[in-house]
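Notes from hallway chat w/ T.B., transcribed later so I don't forget. T.B. wanted the structure written out for a chain they're using in a teaching module, and asked if we could keep both sequence and structure tokens in one place. Agreed to drop them here.
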Amino acid sequence: MNDLYKDILTGLIFIIGLFGFISGEFIISSALFATVAIASNVNVNSKRGKTGSIV
């Protein structure tokens, strides 16, 4: 999957989680926020591995 599509999907899941939080679906929104946090960290770590720099 292209990096742009991964970023769009991550942002979309975050927005859905935000709307879920506002509407009162706290368990679902917490799961979505956790998914976004993990996916975001995986994307950052995979991009670091490709370039070879830690900074």
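Follow-up for T.B.: The mean pLDDT is 79. Might be a good example for the class.
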